[in-house]
Write a structure and sequence with these properties.
- The protein is α+β, with helices and mostly antiparallel strands.
- The chain folds into two domains: about 120 residues, 2,3-Dihydroxybiphenyl 1,2-Dioxygenase, domain 1; about 160 residues, 2,3-Dihydroxybiphenyl 1,2-Dioxygenase, domain 1 (Roll).
- About 20% of the residues lie in helices and about 35% in strands.
- It has six helices and 19 strands.
- Strands 9, 10, 11, 12, 13, 14, 15, 16, 17, 18 and 19 form an eleven-stranded mixed beta sheet that branches.
- A hairpin with a 5-residue loop joins strand 7 and strand 8.
- It binds fe (ii) ion.
């Protein structure tokens, strides 16, 4: 089955701005550019985990999941066939671009390109954050997490749990929010789904740092930037994964949650799904910037191929 969230790819007219924002503010390391001049960013010894490609509009290019090894990958392909997913093999150019041993891909019912791979290339002990942060929490927990908008929560739940094998971690239901959180490894959630009628897209993705001080320094750097990629939700602690984090805008509509101290699910056999009636224990207060910007990469469902 799937081991972890491995990489994410976006397209954006503002892709160049990620070279500065990703390094100076987020503490990621620049990797070699893609063939199309994509800005690629490292967060550990893997050659890269984030790519922002040149594009005419902000878009989700691909969502990359990893299997632990070749045998798991082959078993997963059998699983895909058994659940009726018709997938394509990655071309040699795509394997080189993604820096993986092998991959397959398909487009999910919401128009998102899902990729499964194994054997991503890494360069041990070479990660070097340009702003000297202590490091990101990755490894067995993968890249972090992301939140998709879906038009119908229960339909999307049925699809992603069956096809990707995601397990429900818990739910948050309050005001207009109805969100389900899913895990594939110890990370409390690698993906979450939030219902937004008529829409799909991505609200945010989350990066977790090993040291709480690195969250604080990121807040200072953003506030010193004079309104560029501003904070949209102040520092706070979530009810479900206990992450202490803030949210900021990016050059490309998708938001970032930047946090520390997320909960790790140690034993699936003992895990019991909860429903929370609040998003946060404290903090995560909206700023003015939250309301003046789109809530992520939003795609009306009729433009997503459906
Ligand atoms: Fe999050």
């Amino acid at each position: 089955m799937i081991h972890s969230l491995s990489y994410l790819g976006f397209g954006s007219p503002n892709f160049e701005e990620w070279a500065d924002f990703g390094t100076r503010v987020l503490g990621l390391e620049l990797a070699a550019r893609g063939e199309d001049d994509a800005v690629r960013l490292r967060m550990d010894d893997l050659n890269y985990r984030l790519a922002v490609h040149p594009a005419e509009r902000d878009e989700i290019r691909y969502i990359g999941w990893a299997c632990a090894n070749e045998a798991e990958f082959k078993a997963y392909l059998q699983h895909l066939t058994s659940v009726g997913v018709e997938f394509e093999s990655g071309s040699s150019g795509e394997l080189e671009e993604r820096q993986v041993a092998d991959l397959v891909w398909w487009v999910d019912p919401y128009g998102h390109r899902q990729e499964i791979s194994w054997g991503k290339r890494s360069s041990p002990t070479t990660f070097n954050s340009p702003r000297g942060i202590s490091g990101f929490v990755t490894g067995a927990q993968g890249l972090g997490h992301f939140v998709l908008f879906v038009p119908n929560l229960l339909e999307a739940d049925e699809y992603y749990t069956r096809v990707l094998g995601l397990k429900l971690s818990d739910r948050i239901i309050f005001n207009n929010f109805n969100i389900r959180f899913y895990h594939v490894n110890g990370r409390h959630h690698s993906m979450a789904l939030g219902e937004m009628p008529g829409m799909t897209g991505m609200n945010h993705f989350m990066l977790e740092v090993q040291n709480f001080g690195d969250v604080g320094r990121a807040i200072d750097l953003i506030n010193d930037d004079g309104g560029k990629n501003p904070i949209i939700l102040t520092l706070g602690r979530h009810t479900n994964d206990l992450m202490t984090s803030f949210y900021c805008d990016t050059p490309s509509s998708v938001k970032i949650e930047y946090g520390h101290g997320g909960y790790v699910i140690r034993d699936d056999a003992e895990w019991m799904v909860q429903t929370y009636s609040a998003n946060s224990i404290w903090g995560h207060r909206p700023t003015e910037a939250l309301h003046s910007r789109p809530p992520g990469i939003l795609i009306p469902i009729d433009q997503s191929g459906n």
